[in-house]
Design a protein that fits this description.
Blueprint (H helix, E strand, L loop, with lengths): L27 H19 L6 H10 L8 H11 L7 H4 L3 H26 L5 H14 L6 H30 L5 E4 L7 E5 L3 H12 L4 E5 L9 H4 L4 E5 L6 H5 L5 E4 L15 E4 L8 E3 L6 H10 L10 E4 L3 H6 L1 H10 L4 E7 L8 H9 L4 E5 L14 E2 L2 E2 L1 E3 L6 H15 L8 E6 L3 H12 L6 E3 L8 H11 L2 E2 L3 H8 L5
Parallel strand pairs: 2-3, 2-5, 3-4, 5-6, 6-7, 9-10, 9-14, 10-13, 14-15, 15-16
Antiparallel strand pairs: 1-8, 11-12
Helix pairs in contact: 1-2, 1-3, 1-6, 2-3, 2-5, 5-6, 5-7, 5-16, 6-7, 7-16, 14-18
The chain binds iron/sulfur cluster (SF4) and FE4-S3 cluster.
């Protein structure tokens, strides 16, 4: 008997499912508690109990990959939901296609919950999205629902995710201003510092307010890099630069560093002996043995630890990243972009975006970007960009060839840019000289993929591997309906997307 079953992320064991412990570090017991929490939410949704939106979003978010490994926290959330759980074993044990589609829908719902959670923290009203999440959860537990019904609900989940992304985009700009292009230093200066990771801008702002007064510098990590582009965050003198690269390198990059680390959301890996004594969590994230900062957001333990560790004696690192090409920045250049397309100075756009991860085949994305011709632009977002955002690709049509649009949720901005370009050029989105080359790892990327499919966007390339829950039959449907395709070889894929012989 397997001790657990989980197939929700890209690194699932053997490309089929984690059975005894998660490749992510999740134990069988934590998996059981996450299933119990999910089952309780499904039961509440099926009973029409009317779950509180905050509890629903926080609970689903806690079960997303690399978020919460803390059994006590998961048990507390389940107790708050207060329902005898629906047995998730009934999903795991369902016939292959039904299991796959129910897992797909659940993964999409977890992604929606994460984005809804962030916008809710900034004061957005997520009640309508919460209603969809309840309907979706009820469907995950509906054993009579056929494949067609499940597939169409998955696309509706993409629609709900579009609403969640729109809400978050608005909440971010209302709270922190309109992001603009910015160069972010990768130098770590002398003196005590905190590295903030995850996606939560509000937590970062609260940290900046508290750290600045105590002479502690703050560096962003991973998906917080785009924070520097927002005037309401960039204005803090304590915000110095960016540390490290993507999430999967954290155990190596954090070990022995004389600074404190704060995880506001995913992707948290189990901290090792080399740095566990300086890691903190807040919000939906948790890990046993790691100090969790509660809802009062009093970050003094984090700041105190940074002061104890003292930082480096002299500056370390070099270089910079450029970020902040959100939809507003790109659309403010719309005339230049459209002119460059019409004149042929820009031949094609690529959106190379999504998650990073450990698999060596993810080198594909850097290789793909490196090979893109000089008269093409590369838009990127999500943490997958750390594979190539140190490349200098030069300019095309007077624009930088590599444009970092922000976090994974800024897929909303990419959609806006694509729609605006299509309108300006008098064509449909699928007729644009635009190709989407996406990388997935966790469930937010699944939600974004469902959003793109809901919008009818065709011919997306998806990698580095296809989800284990996409069965051959479901893949056939996605290929026939949307032209979704797995990655091939970078040069051949590029030639095909540009309509050239390989
Ligand atoms: Fe395995 Fe991914 Fe599930 Fe972790 S989240 S247990 S790695 S499938
Ligand atoms: Fe990355 Fe975890 Fe998905 Fe927000 S931080 S994109 S993997």
């Amino acid at each position: 008997m397997p001790q657990m079953f989980c197939m929700q992320c890209e690194q699932t064991a053997g490309g089929r499912g984690c059975l005894s412990a998660g490749r992510c570090g999740k134990s069988a017991e934590t998996s059981r508690l996450q299933d119990g929490l999910t089952g309780a939410l499904i039961a509440a949704a099926r009973n029409g109990e009317g779950l509180e939106p905050q509890l629903l979003a926080e609970s689903l978010f806690a079960t997303l990959t690399n978020v919460n490994f803390d059994d006590a926290a998961l048990a507390r959330l389940a107790a708050r939901v207060g329902q005898p759980p629906y047995d998730l074993g009934r999903v795991h044990g369902a016939p292959e296609d039904a299991r796959g589609l129910r897992t797909l829908l659940l993964a999409g719902l977890r992604g929606v919950a994460a984005y809804a959670f962030h916008s809710m923290a900034l004061g957005a009203d997520i009640r309508e999205i919460a209603r969809f999440m309840e309907n979706g959860l009820a469907a995950v537990g509906d054993e009579d629902l056929g494949l067609d019904g499940l597939l169409s609900l998955a696309l509706e989940c993409g629609e709900a995710n579009l609403s969640a992304l729109r809400l978050l985009d608005r909440a971010n700009t209302e709270a922190f201003g309109v992001p603009g292009p910015v160069k972010v230093s990768r130098v770590i200066g002398p003196g005590p510092f905190v590295v903030a990771s995850g996606h939560d801008f509000l937590d970062l702002r609260l940290l900046l307010e508290q750290a600045g007064g105590r002479g502690v510098d703050v560096y962003t990590h991973g998906e917080l890099l785009p924070a520097h582009a927002y005037p309401g965050l960039g204005k803090y003198p304590a915000l110095k630069g960016n540390f490290g690269t993507a999430w999967q390198n954290q155990q190596r990059e954090f070990a022995g560093v004389p600074g404190a680390f704060l995880f506001t959301t995913n992707c948290l890996m189990p901290p090792t002996a080399g740095h566990a004594d300086r890691v903190f969590t807040t919000g939906p994230v948790g890990h046993p043995g790691i100090v969790h900062i509660g809802d009062d957001k009093d970050f003094s333990p984090v700041i105190g630890r940074a002061l104890e560790l003292g930082g480096y004696g002299e500056a370390r690192g070099k270089g910079h990243f450029t970020t902040g090409f959100g939809h507003q920045a790109v659309l403010s250049l719309a005339d230049t972009v459209v002119g460059a397309v019409r004149s042929g100075a820009i031949r094609h756009f690529f959106l190379v975006g999504g998650c990073d991860g450990e698999r060596a085949s993810r080198d594909y994305y850097a290789e793909f970007v490196r090979r893109t011709p000089k008269d093409t632009l590369v838009l990127t977002l999500g943490c997958g960009k750390f594979r190539f955002n140190d490349l200098d690709l030069g300019t095309a049509g007077g624009l930088p060839r590599l444009l970092d649009m922000g976090q994974c949720n800024d897929a909303f901005g990419a959609i806006r840019v694509a729609l605006a370009l299509a309108e300006a050029l008098g064509c449909g989105v699928n007729d644009l000289p635009l190709s989407l080359v996406l990388s997935w790892y966790e469930q937010k990327a699944v939600a974004i993929l469902l959003t793109l499919l809901h919008l009818g966007i065709r011919n997306i390339l998806l990698g580095p591997t296809l989800p284990a829950f996409v069965t051959p039959k479901v893949l056939d449907r996605l290929v026939a309906g949307f032209g979704l395709a797995p990655l091939g070889e970078p040069g051949a894929d590029l030639a095909r997307l540009l309509g050239q012989p390989a």
